[in-house]
Amino acid sequence: MSHYSIFSLARNALSRHENWSEAWRNPEPRAEYDVIIIGAGGHGLGAAYYLAKEHGITNVAVLEKGYLGGGNTGRNTTIVRSNYLLEGNAHFYEHSMKLWEGLSRDINYNVMFSQRGVLNLAHTDAQIDAFQRRGNAMRLNGIDAEFLSVEEIAARVPLLDCSPQTRFPIRGGLLQPRGGTARHDAVAWGYARAADTRGVDIIQNCEVTGIDVNGGRVNGVQTTRGAIRAAKIGIAVAGHSSQVAAMAGLRLPIESHVLQAMVSEPLKPCLDTVVTSGAAHLYVSQSDKGELVYGGDLDFYNSYAQRGNMPRVEEVAAALLSLFPAFSRVRMMRTWGGVMDMTMDGSPIIGKTPIDGLYLNGGWCYGGFKATPASGFCYAHLIAKDEPHPTATEYRLDRFLRGAMIDEKGMGAQPNLH
Length: 418
Hints:
The structure is a single chain. By secondary structure, the chain is an alpha/beta fold. It has 11 helices and 18 strands. The chain starts with a helix and ends in a 16-residue tail after the last helix.
């Protein structure tokens, strides 16, 4: 760090940060933009950044009904991986992984990406076969994968109960060494600053209340801060996709469910790998602050509330303790809920809608955070060129009409849609 940076930090600290310059502007909405993106989470902000950087489209507004990053971007367990079996998913998520690996340098903001590895535990012969098949497919696609024995897992994760007496006996595991975690808030902040620097307007506290459609195409939105015109509108609002799309008369193949996550009190470093178990439906890692960050399955009732209930908290805590008995005396510090937009096949949608100029980014199920860079990149490509990016061609909305599902078993829930 330079002497200037040290003195700048000291000066701002002594002035209680009163003279600290804002990371991004707080502009008033203009009457018209080339592109409006609804939703200032990681996907919306990422799309705005890549529209400006990759396609030279800077007359862009990102509209957020609350505060930047206040939705699912700030309400997830921060896991990053690309350990997918099917071609339609593998190349997209590997594209995202490669963007993650250079993201801090690209946007000049430390997103605290930590490639500590992601380990999927196998508990049955069937899971061993499935994981080895997935690992082989990953390696054929140029994605890193290693199958570990029980002994190798015990050496890598000493606190994990690898004894045969545990509730979920461990038979092996699939490791992606390049997987890991990132700081979710930093991702939103970094993309926001980078997009703002390139001229994008980020407008907070501006709720979209209507989408104007005339002659089968969009021409603007109605908001709590007035009408704004645009020839292209992108929806990137996660669990509220169905609500916003309904403003344009669209019904989506999506259900919204609550997914809870929990955080423990801070501990000394004791878990340096992300551990997941499909049988227990648990995923856990340790944050840089020392907290255990963990979660499980959906609450399985339709809801738009950012809160959950105690039965799911108890179930996830029981799963954690069955695999890590040493955590039995650790106190849970807080819990929260995110609103998940669940598609029928567990895979996302990045595609055009039947309305000209209206584009959808949603249906991310459990996979939204890790997809953030590629989602933004591919969504920007779709909006700018009106055609899907090569790594996202199978995520078109019309796949549900064509029966071209991307049913990645074990990658996400498939709720019954009616």
